[in-house]
Amino acid sequence: MASSSSSQLPPSVFNPRRHVGVHAERVSDVASTDFPGHYPGEDHTWSLARFKENLTVSVKRLSQRSVEFDLVGVDASIANAFRRIMIAEVPTIAIEDVFVWNNTSVIHDEILAQRLGLIPLNVDPALFSPRLPGDIPYDRNTLVFQLDIECSRGAKGAIINEYVTSGDLKWVPQGEQESVFGDLVPTATNKDIVIAKLRPGQVINVELHAIKGVGKEHAKWSPVATATYRLHPLVLLNPSKPIPPHLAQKFASCFSPGVVKVSPDGEVSIDDRHLRKETMSREVLRHKEFEGSVELKRVRDWFIYSVESEGPYAPEVLFPESIKVMRGKIAAIRAAAEALLADSEGPDAGAAAAGPDADGDVEMEP
Amino acid sequence: MNAPNRYELYVLEEGERPVEVTEDTKIPNAATVKIVKQDHTLANLLRSQLLSMPQVTFAGYKVPHPLHPYFLLKIQTDGSVTPTQVLETACTKLIGTIATLEAKFKREFTYNADGAVQEDAYGVPVTGDGLEGRSYIDF
After folding, report:
1. Alpha carbon distances (Å) from B137 to A66, A273, A277
2. Looking at residue B72, what is its pLDDT?
3. Residue B7 DSSP SS3
């Protein structure tokens, strides 16, 4: 019989300092308190060893396009940074320029261009360098597609090319791209996205240039459909005010199916294995008879991530990619902070190598 | 129409320095660090890391205007180290944190891919029956 005393959850989950309270109309204890100076006489100095000990990562579900994993023991700022980076700063390739040679469809040029831009492409962004405004397009920063399609009437009145789909995009290799890509022909990740519908006689003939970018410039470069996290739910029963057996079924129906177990003699307990499915609807808080016998909580540092990939990345590599981006950011700031330190120590201490050059680059000691 | 170019959010301009420090003249051991072309992602991370270090008496950040791609990080220390030094250590510690995270994450995935012991949500090895055994189901 599972109850909070013989729990599947690690006992530290029941430490009230890790709990965010969920009440009928508000939440409480949202901010973390494990930093120095918060609890008198306790040392909460950050240490790598302690962090390593508390950190757990575990995969919960992995499919072709999505992954769900738990990240336990990190601060919300870290969890949120990775969520933001996955959405906005992991690079992908997307169509940026659309040159319209002919478009007699009912879709206007600019709408067509917008729709083309949003098509996710299966190109590894590592093979490309970004092309900034003013840069000359060449084979390392631009990928060219052709979309040339005409609708016509076939035998017995059948309409040919009625639907223009993302599968109609034709890659036009430039420079050394043919040998670089080999068998990995750049296409849309999904070949069945309808771009436009045509009637016989209508033509679309456009040239498309795809470049590397990041989601914070435009959402078309975001590699994810969603990247979200939620905190692990927790339902705590009050042993001094148990649920009376005749109300046990009503109590159970206040929660997601499986969360509350009712024994044959009407005894109520929480099934930890299904706890993560709890929606925290707070239905139980609406009933007077359950007042004081149950508390709804969330675990502040237990993040349940759900990431859906929609681009070239497999879902399980998106998180490592975001870590790479994050490391790049922090390394840049550290180098700059070191340069500042060298500056403040004066030219005699820092020697010639210390200051950043005209590009802001900093020489680092090997 | 007059919106700033979107690439200005993350591309450093010609000769622009990523970090600038202004010493605070009215408060001892305090400085304001201006970090250019970065947003809440990094700002909040640095702030929380700084707060977890005992030498730091105050750390906070603000993004003065959502269209201006920089933030200000205010740091005050207890005097044993300078704000710039403490920022540098914070970066080093964050890199350690993230490296640990990356290692654990990668290990978790290789572990499962090899067909080793499957664990359920609570680290208990799964024997094969029940919902938890099908943790790798496709939608």
Report:
1. 11, 17, 16
2. 96
3. helix
Domains, chain B: 6-114 (3.30.1360.10)
Q: What is the ipTM of this complex?
A: 0.70
Cα separation, A241 vs A268, in Å, equals 12
Contacts with B, A 256-275, CB within 8 Å: 272-273
Note whether B61 and B38 are within 8 A (CB): no
Residue in B16, B44, B102 nearest the CB of A81: B44
| CA–CA min distance B63, chain A (Å) | 16
Strand-pairing partners, residue B75, are: B31, B59
User: A295 has which bridge partners?
Assistant: A236
Please tell me the distance from the alpha carbon of residue A324 to that of residue A318, in angstroms, as a whole number: 10
State the amino acid at position A221 in one-letter form: W
Structural domains of chain A, ranges and CATH numbers in brackets: 11-87+226-308 (3.30.1360.10), 92-221 (2.170.120.12)
For the entire predicted model, the pTM comes to 0.82
The string of DSSP codes covering A36-94 is: TTSSTT------HHHHHHH-EEEEEEE-SSEEEEEEES--HHHHHHHHHHHHHTS-EEE
| pLDDT tens digit sequence for A296-307 | 999 999 999 999
pLDDT tens, residue by residue, B69-103: 999 999 999 999 999 999 999 999 999 999 999 99
**Looking at chain A, which runs of residues are DSSP E strands?**
19-22, 27-28, 56-62, 66-72, 92-103, 143-150, 152-153, 159-160, 163-165, 170-172, 194-197, 203-213, 224-237, 260-262, 268-270, 294-309
Best mutation target, B89, B94, B134, to test chain A (most A CBs within 10 A):
B94
The token pair at A261 is 């177990």
